[in-house]
Amino acid sequence: MTQWLPLLGSLVVAAAVLVGVIANNRTHRDGIAAADERGRQALDAAQRNVELSNMVGDQRDHEAWRREAVLAAVASILETSASVRADLTSCGEWDLVTAEEIDNVGAQIHKVIWDRPNGMLTRLRVVAHRRIPNKCEDLLRTLTAAQHITMQRLKLHIDVEATVEELEEMASLWQKAMRHAAEQERALVETTRIELGIDIATKGPAVPPVPAPAPPVVEPVSEVVDEPVDETPVEEAAFEPEAEEQTAELRVTEVAEDEVEALQAEPAKV
């Protein structure tokens, strides 16, 4: 019996060692699994941070592209408006003696107003808030009304039956339409600044007042043209009563709507 004691002791020791090894292996496996889990979580967090950074970068790039697109479109429409107003202001220097010539010039100006800016309007309706394209369209419609009023004014100057009162009334209406277009340019600039978050302190009008053009000199009505026309300067408009300003604005708006309806009923000449 005693000869088996070393063997039994060895078996007990071996069993204890085996149990210890198994327990140690399990502890190592648990440690390895925990380390793998921590590594996986760290990798997932790093991937999420990279994706978030990419998303923020993409949004920043998209916002920068949108701002550039809005600025380019609005700037193009404002350039067109300034060019048209400059042309209409110099109408007294045009050498037009027939109604057909006046209509041809009016058709060319109408094309300038709506040709390229029409595509910019479509782009603005996609990338900007609806207030900006709406104000752009209002500005173009006002320019169209001013263009028609200018053509009517030129036709009055070559009309031998035109009276001084008619010339004065048309000149006053022309000035109010041009002033209204300048005010709409300023409103468009302010709306664009608000849309894009641009904070610029401005003082005074954004658009200079519109000077009254010299009436064209035409031989058959030279006496009528030489009569002085009492046109109210733009600078004095601020001192008019409030009711008079509202009446003038309402009148210009009605003229713009009448001209737009006429354009829709009659195809434009190229």
What are the salient characteristics of this protein?
270 residues, mainly alpha, disordered C terminus
Mean pLDDT: 75
- Total helical segments: 6
Any idea what the shape is?
rod-shaped
Low-confidence stretches: 201-210, 215-253, 266-270
Share of helical residues: over 70%
Q: Strand share of the residues?
A: under 5%
**Class from helix and strand fractions:** mainly alpha
Can you write the helix and strand succession as a string? HHHHHH
Main beta-sheet strand count, sense and barrel state? none
Tell me how many strands there are: 0
Distance between the termini: 126 Å
Radius of gyration: 39 Å
Q: Can you give me a brief rundown of this structure?
A:
The chain contains 6 helices and no strands.
Overview of the structural elements:
This protein starts with a helix and ends in a 5-residue tail after the last helix. It is mainly α and 270 residues long. Helix 3 runs antiparallel to helix 4 and helix 3 (131-157) crosses helix 6 (242-265). The protein is built from 6 helices and no strands.
Layout: helices, strands, pairs:
Layout: H1 5-89, H2 99-127, H3 131-157, H4 164-196, H5 222-225, H6 242-265
Helix pairs in contact: 1-2, 1-3, 1-4, 2-3, 3-4, 3-6, 4-6
